[in-house]
What we know:
By secondary structure, this protein is mainly alpha-helical. It is built from 8 helices and no strands. It is elongated and about 75 Å long.
Amino acid sequence: MKNRVFLLVAILLLPFVLAACATMSKEECVAADWRVIGETDGANGQDPQRRFADHTKSCQKAGVIPDQSLWYQGFQQGLIRYCTPLNGLNAGQSGKPYNNVCPVDLSANFLRGYSIGKAEYNQRSKVQSVQNRIDSVEREIDEVRAKLAKGQIDEQDGKSLLRKSEREIDRLRFEKRREELELRTIERDGEIFASNPNMVIPPRY
Length: 205
């Protein structure tokens, strides 16, 4: 019975999933300027093979075959806008993947910014991860206190659990402060880079 319900839900959701995956509507496929679309894709740093394949699949129902030559010409133009040091910094800070699309003459400077931005994103994730662990332990403490108040656990056992959890909270808070200091250092490097993309990148990146 559960399998039937799951199958029914999957069938009902399928049109919405396919619509979400589509890169273009039928109307957009018919009126498409493939050079402009390619330029937009390039400016967003899309994976060229995957993106064009998605366009091709989206336009099949409209009976439209994308012009790969025009699209690729536009894509190359878009990369000029995408592959800049500051855009690399922004992409990294947002946690966006790099699809290895920048030409050789542009990739080095893009990656200089991207490495700092990605380091900031990763460090921010570390800080959040520690905070999540703190929140989890605090919830455990609240649960133990509630059980103690209701007499649902032995008092000595409960107090022992509380002491253990409070020590863990102290350790995690210290760890969070350390990670936050590291984050501020990386953020400062990002701010300096944003004002001077030609700066010498510290070896840590």
